[in-house]
Amino acid sequence: MPPEPSEFEYVTAIAKDHPASNGHFVGNPIIPGAVIMEHVRIAFAQFRGDLHLKRMTKVKNLSVLKPGNTLTVRIRSKSEESFSFSCLDCDDTEIAAGSFHSTPLAATRQ
């Protein structure tokens, strides 16, 4: 059986009229950090469907993501249960970074 890949990249377009941007901020909308972190979770599920994202640590919001831009999530394995991530906008500006721990998906279903 081949080893699991150690890196993964997920790219998605954020709608120009994304509903979460309505209240963040009038006249200068941004995509909230919670939406960005949800995309980290989605990316991890695509990368390692056998694992469940358990706990995020050391998350830093470094810049803002504007509606209508592309979001890239890069995930790197640090160990079997530990991962780091970086989120970038369409011009490769890092907008968020951090790390998280996982647990086997089967353990969450018991």
How would you summarize what this structure contains?
The chain has 110 residues and is α+β, with helices and mostly antiparallel strands. The chain is built from two helices and five strands.
Radius of gyration: 15 Å
Query: CATH homologous superfamily, by name?
Result: Hotdog Thioesterase
Return residue spans where pLDDT drops below 50 for at least 5 consecutive residues: none
Compute the number of helices: 2
Main CATH class: Alpha Beta
Structural class: alpha+beta
Number of domains: 1
Quaternary state of the chains: single chain
End-to-end distance, in Å? 27 Å
Mean pLDDT: 91
Structural write-up:
With 110 residues, this protein is of the alpha+beta class. The protein has one domain (7-108): Thiol Ester Dehydrase, Chain A. The chain is built from two helices and five strands, in the order E-H-E-E-E-E-H. Strands 1-3-4-5-2 form a five-stranded antiparallel sheet. A hairpin with a 5-residue loop joins strand 4 and strand 5. It is elongated, with a radius of gyration of 15 Å.
